[in-house]
Amino acid sequence: MSPAAQRARKVAVVGVSLSDCGRVDTATPYALHAQAARRALADSGLDRSVVDGFASAGLGTLAPVEVAEYLGLRPAWTDSTAVGGSTWEVMTAHAADAIAAGHARAVLLVYGSTARADIRAGRRTANLSFGARGPLQFEVPYGHTLVAKYAMAARRHMHEYGTTLEQLADIAVQARINAGHNPDAMFREPITVDDVLSGPMIADPFTKLHCCIRSDGGCAVLLAAEEYVPDTAKPPVWVLGSGTAVSHTTMSEWDDFTVSPAAASGRAAFARAGVRPSDIDVAELYDAFTYMTLVTLEDLGFCAKGEGGPFAAKGRLTRDGELPTNTDGGGLSACHPGMRGLFLLVEAVRQLRGEAGERQVHKAGGRLPELAVASGTGGWFCSAGTVVLGRG
User: Fold this and answer.
1) Is the CB of residue 50 less than 8 Å from the CB of residue 224?
2) Separation CA 116–CA 121 (nearest Å)
3) Which of 117-121, 262-266, 272-276, 305-309 has the lowest average pLDDT?
4) Going by C-beta distance under 8 Å and a sequence separation of 6 or more, which residues neighbour residue 242?
5) CA 329 to chain CA centroid, nearest Å
């Protein structure tokens, strides 16, 4: 294949899977990685010998080398980018570029975590901050936790644009409605705005139900060059465009608490895909906190800046709403074992394939969705990765 032809290669997601998720007390993170990887390969129908690229983060001293060894892989192309929750969208962008350029045939992205089980078993404790070295040393002594940083940003949005607690709470309510259609979601019982508002305070204005759940789980995504698509078991979902961006580490360097780096990553992804936000049928957005969903909707262009509160209300984000968002229930209700960004891609692919079961989104006339966006956020709005996917 000539260099020009290699650069022109299209890239598809050909396999996706979840490991066991939710409450998994007897498995190691390595076992969840392996389970997800095997299931994704089986989902693709391709032989493991095709896989010559591997991407992983968050486990081992030499990630992804240790995980690849555990899986019995010897990849020629690797990626260990670690930028929090947006890691997997950023890795998808890297992997798609590598495949298109001929540096790899097929790249496997895998994640697994037993964050919940480890705390219950005393193998680890909850962390108040990411560290006390480098720039963070100037914030940590004052008790500025990760959740407090998100809470500060939410309060700024409320001050700037009149966003209300009820509007933020309604995002959690709609996530739970979506989770109610997902048999694999960790929490499925309906909740109300009053339930959210009356819960225990975590960091003002966030009560417990404004915050993501803690779970165990893993997942995997396999991307491959277009010449392998005829051999796959499922219809391809094409990577149409992607974008990445970083913003800040210390809060004092964040220019505007009401703007996330998704404003840049989304703009690039939509432009490269040749689509507009109004074309999107399904949105899978990182939602460690309700405010993340709201501000990402604004920054991706689904509504104007400051209008996220009214836009997200009235059921617009549910399976049957105008913009079905976090259709599996998201990190607020379904599963959040840590760096959740890869779960967004799995759900987006399943929706485009028509494999989402009770929670399947349909367009007018019962048609399947054609375009989806997955947008991950890392740190405390420190980084973002956005990927636009299309049905073949």
Assistant:
1) yes
2) 9
3) 117-121
4) 89, 92, 93, 96, 268, 269, 272, 385, 386, 387, 388
5) 12
Q: Which residues of 113-150 are buried (b: 16+ CB within 10 A; e: fewer)?
A: bbbbbeeeeeeeeeeeebeeeeeeeebeeeebbbbbbb
The domain 11-122+220-229 is placed in CATH, from the list 3.90.1260.10, 3.40.47.10, 1.10.3720.10, 3.10.20.30, at: 3.40.47.10
Residues of the chain with CATH 3.40.47.10: 11-122+220-229, 145-213+240-391
How many residues would you count in the chain?
Answer: 392
**Contact present, 392 and 319 (Cβ < 8 Å):** no
Predicted local distance difference test score (pLDDT) of residue 127: 66
pLDDT digits (tens, 9 = 90+) for 209-240: 999 999 999 999 999 999 999 999 999 999 99
Residue pair 40/16 in contact by the 8 Å Cβ criterion: yes
**pLDDT higher than 50, residue 4:** no
- CATH class of this structure's domain 145-213+240-391: alpha beta
Residues 325 and 232: their CA atoms lie apart, in Å, by: 28
Instruction: Report the alpha-carbon distance of residue 54 to residue 81 in Å, rounded.
Output: 12
